[in-house]
């Protein structure tokens, strides 16, 4: 029984990977200068970066509608899938997963399985990719959902932002935690824990923050066979440098993706943000 894999646009999987595995991507909406558009198709990361650096400009995001998901699920079923496994960013950060569950109830929960990755960006994306690979190998819906859940559970996400103000405004981090980034000009290193954005440590400079990202990623990899992703918003040079340092620090990397954050996540982290996502190899799969 063929299984289709779906996700939302915040997974930020490379376009060639999406095309190769036939992954269904349902876009979030980004509101910019009073105009609402679909992430990626109508509003780009560059649009968001420019808006966030313009005084008075505000950027907000909203989930796909349940109808968007219903249309996507029914399209894949009409194309021949028997089941759909739909994997999304943390419900602690967005109501996207709720919309997917409403759609699943309408289409049929015996047909559509919805999974909360408890993560974001490639923290979700690696779970989606693992699910798609399992489906391509003939796995049934239960197996596809299980491998996605296992992958999401062992994936770690670390990032640094130039300012916590965008996260605070968007309600993605508490006002008390936002003070971490203002006192004595410290640079907070953050991570995603239990589906939430949480401060991890404080360092004095941007260079030290990037060095800590590399150290944290190497520790999280735990050995050869890890998959890595580097994300950024309007900081390609910092992202390239981070990727090169990760290649040196982490042995036997299975794959490394570098991509710019899309509008929906970029609106909350702001220009200059860089991060790394680490999925260690499963025990028994390490070289």
From TrEMBL:
Keyword line: Lipid-binding
Keyword Iron included in the entry's annotation: no
Xref: NCBIfam families: DegV
Molecular function in Gene Ontology: lipid binding
InterPro entries per record: DegV, DegV_C, DegV_domain_contain
Species for this entry: Geodermatophilus normandii
Protein name: DegV family protein
Lineage, opening ranks: Bacteria, Bacillati, Actinomycetota, Actinomycetes, Geodermatophilales
Pfam families associated with the record: DegV (PF02645)
């Amino acid at each position: 029984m063929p299984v289709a894999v779906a996700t939302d646009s915040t997974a930020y999987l490379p376009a060639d990977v999406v095309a190769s595995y036939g992954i269904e991507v349902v876009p979030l909406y980004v509101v910019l200068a009073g105009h609402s558009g679909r992430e990626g198709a109508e509003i780009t990361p560059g649009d968001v970066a420019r808006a966030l650096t313009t005084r008075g400009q505000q950027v907000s995001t909203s989930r796909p509608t349940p109808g968007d998901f219903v249309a996507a699920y029914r399209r894949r079923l009409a194309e021949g899938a028997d089941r759909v496994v739909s994997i999304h960013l943390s419900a602690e950060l967005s109501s996207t997963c709720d919309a997917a569950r409403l759609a699943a109830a309408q289409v049929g929960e015996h047909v559509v399985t919805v999974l909360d990755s408890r993560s974001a960006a490639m923290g979700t994306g690696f779970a989606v990719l693992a699910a798609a690979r399992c489906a391509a190998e003939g796995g049934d819906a239960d197996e596809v959902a299980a491998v996605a859940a296992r992958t999401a559970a062992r994936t770690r996400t670390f990032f640094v932002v130039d300012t916590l103000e965008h996260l605070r405004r968007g309600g993605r981090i508490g006002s008390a935690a936002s003070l971490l980034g203002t006192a004595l000009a410290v640079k907070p290193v953050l991570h995603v824990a239990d589906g939430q954005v949480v401060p991890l440590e404080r360092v004095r400079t941007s260079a030290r923050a990037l060095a800590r990202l590399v150290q944290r990623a190497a520790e999280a990899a735990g050995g050869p066979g890890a998959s890595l992703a580097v994300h950024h918003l309007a900081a390609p040079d910092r992202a390239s440098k981070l990727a090169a340092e990760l290649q040196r620090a982490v042995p036997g990397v299975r794959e490394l993706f570098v991509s710019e954050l899309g509008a929906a996540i970029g609106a909350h982290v702001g220009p200059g943000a860089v991060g790394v996502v680490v999925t260690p190899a499963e025990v028994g799969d390490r070289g």
